[in-house]
Amino acid sequence: MTLPELPSFVRSRTDLDGYTLYRSSSPRRDRAVGCVVLVTVDTDSEATAKAWVDSVFVALASEPNPHPGGLSAAFHIRDDGKRVVNVAEWVSAQDHVDAVSDGNGVGSRTADWRRVQNFPGVRHVSVDRYQPAARPHAGPSRTPGEYESSPRTVSAKIQAEVE
């Protein structure tokens, strides 16, 4: 699967232009990053954005079957407070495809994940997969967060809407 390059506003998993890092998970360093997934959520307010992110962390903590291909998540809130971008790192695009293949998103069918999916004030969710951009002089294997993007445009969207 050929993936487009990361958009230029993504400098690293914890540094996005126009966004402030709100919460992140500790990256697993036992496997290399093969795919970066940007999950974008539009919300009614900054309070809704923060509450939605917090609900994701509750769902992640109670997840009975975490997918082994997920490496990290870093949630950023746009400066106006009305958009969240999660920079999620995966071992491969196929791991992410497999994790969302049942139509339920990355989580199991639990009450906590249903709350995330039906959160009041969340108007739009999109998911796009990208290749991680290597740091200069980095080898072919990339550990979580080890990439930088240079100015470039995204040539294709992999997946538009997630239910």
General description of the model:
By secondary structure, the chain is an alpha+beta fold. The chain contains three helices and eight strands, in the order ββββαββααββ. The strands form two sheets. It has a six-stranded antiparallel β-sheet. A hairpin with a 4-residue loop joins strand 5 (70-78) and strand 6 (83-90). Helix 1 packs antiparallel against helix 3 (111-117). It is globular. It starts with 9 loop residues before the first strand and ends with a strand.
Q: Would you kindly provide a brief summary of this structure?
A:
The protein has helices at 46-61, 93-100, 111-117, and strands spanning 10-12, 15-16, 19-24, 35-43, 70-78, 83-90, 122-130, 159-161. With 163 residues, it is an alpha+beta fold. The strands form 2 sheets. It has a 6-stranded antiparallel β-sheet with strand order 3-5-6-4-7-8.
What is the arithmetic mean of pLDDT? 83
Task: Specify the biggest β-sheet.
Answer: 6 strands, antiparallel
Range of strand content = 25-35%
- Order of strands, main sheet, comes to 3-5-6-4-7-8
The coarse silhouette is globular
> Helical residue percent?
10-25%
Radius of gyration, in Å, reads 15 Å
* Structural classification: alpha+beta
Instruction: Measure the end-to-end span.
Output: 23 Å
Spans of 5+ residues with little confidence (pLDDT < 50)? 135-142, 147-163
Helix and strand succession?
A: EEEEHEEHHEE
SS elements, strand count: 8
Provide a count of the helices: 3
